[in-house]
Amino acid sequence: MARILAVDDEKGILNLVKRVLEKDGHQVRTLSDPAALSMNGLEAFDLILLDVMMPGTDGFTLCRKIRENVDCPILFLTAKTMEKDIMYGLGIGGDDYITKPFGNGELRARVAAHLRREKREKRSVLSLDGIRFNLGAHEMIIGEQKVSLTKSEYAICEFLARSHGQVFSKEQIYEAVYGYEGEGDSSAIAEHVKNIRAKLSVYGCAPIETVWGIGYKWQ
User: From which domain of life does this come (predicted)?
Assistant: First the structure.
């Protein structure tokens, strides 16, 4: 059972989300007015669903504010499918997209995949060329510094690092990280890798190599 917050100005969508996810045993709080969302107490939620196009305060603005306070998975509910919108949302801290209109099965599967990844048991420490993964805490450490990564960014790094030297397609990475049965979102993975590279470049590290026409590998 997880505690989930859903923010959408369409009450019909909120009712659907609440009904579907509560059948899986989750506690779902819904909010139709984004301006009424308080940043206090967000740590109580295990996952947050955000509509993108809302009056007053849009989902991207909310995501930036939320990400300053908590690091739980944030999934966008949106009819915006332009690649630039997807890239922007992932760049500001979102973890995934669910495109409207969506089916009950897809909603359940994506939410379950992110929650499963949050609870996945990890073991010990993995060290590769000066980069250390604290697997139990889901942390990447370079030197004595913890690298600020989103949940999805960390998961991609850990997945590639565990099989360093092996090349994976964007679709394989997506499925391994999110556990969702279906085609991976190539745009999402590419944008996450771009963000990871930017963050690691500050430390003089560039462990993720692009294998043109195939995908990525951890060197």
Answer: Bacteria
